Amino acid sequence: MKFEQDFKDALVHLPNKEKDKLILRLLKKDIKLANQLYFELVETRSVEDLRNMVEQEIEAFFQSIRNHFYSPGILMMNLRDVSGMISNHVSTTKDKFGEPYLNCIMLINALQNNSANLKQCSKGDAFKFNTYVVARIFKILTQVRALHEDLRFDFQELFEQLVTEMIEIPTLMDTLIYHGLDMNWIDYQAIPENIALIQKELRAQGYLK
User: Fold this and answer.
1) pLDDT of amino acid 17
2) Among candidates 98, 171, 94, which has minimal Cα distance to 129?
3) Which of 4, 90, 131, 208 is the most exposed place for a label (fewest CB within 10 A)?
4) For the purposes of burial, counting CB atoms within 10 Å of the CB of 106, is it exposed (0-12), middle (13-18) or buried (19 or more)?
């Protein structure tokens, strides 16, 4: 929404007490903005501290459900819930490194704790879940490629763990090939420079959905 200059000037000249009341009322309706301001103005913990907390929560969550596998569809819903947790962290802290990092942690833990069950699922039953995972990997690669090259190195160990978990699940590997994701790209030195364009073109062709 675009505000006229007269409106902006009127807000600037409101008495401080009125401004304070107005800000508090607006923040109650915009939790996202409230969290951002709290982090910037009040929070004493660093971005790294909060990232580590989210990482521990992700690991604890997948440990808690490892003996409660129902279907690939339910597991995909779990991934979406955890993805929301990551999005809240990124929205609050603007943690560009943390977004792909925590998504790697999410996928590694999900696959590691559910590998035995996923291997028993048919290709058809697991297709939507596997597609979600492949699409998420494309997003991770795009985000890592956009980071400074010195930061990309920090992802290699995570990428190796992710590949190790993926190759244990044949239907996931089949889905990876179907959607055009080259396994060799899951390497901080081998991510194509145009990975974002590759992802966009695949989506335009109906893949990764």
Assistant:
1) 83
2) 171
3) 4
4) buried
